[in-house]
Amino acid sequence: MRFLVLSIDHNWQLAPIPQITVTPKMAENTTRLEAVLRRVIADRGVDLICEESNPCYASVAQMLAYQYSPRIPWRNIVMTAQERLEAGIYEASLDRPFDEVEIPPDSGNVQTIHHRIPSDDVRERFFANQSVQGGSEMGVKSILVICGDMHADFVKHILEESQFEAEVNHELISRKDWVA
Fold this sequence. Notes:
Blueprint: E1 2-8, H1 24-44, E2 48-51, H2 60-67, E3 74-76, H3 81-87, H4 90-94, E4 98-102, E5 110-115, H5 119-138, E6 142-148, H6 149-161, E7 165-169, E8 178-179
Helix pairs in contact: 5-6
């Protein structure tokens, strides 16, 4: 199995929801994500998509996988609240430290910068394990893993430790919104 980890910003991975106002910038980012997904699926022959996504809503990748012909299997690899409780990281996830900065300075545009915490390693191992398990169960060769930018390089490293071919695509991320 070979893996491509696509680094994303969670703010534009969800499929449009009629009740939520979409700004032009959000729509532009969603369109860019869909274009990258279509290209990656075609270029790499993706036969499984594993995504860290809010399970309450459909994602752009999930909808695309469903509409693709033949349909591409899609698997949510997010840790549920119960799985976080059982792993002993539930509270840590709720108390993630962050900073707020104005980008650009004095613009009034406040950006949240999240800090990595030790429990991120537990989650990233979960993402990698769920992706490998899904690939093994389905007998696939090319797996696209979609996760937040903070996790992408770490998931790649975990997959490589397990002797899988893995690479990361950061093309959708223009600014890192997290710190180690």
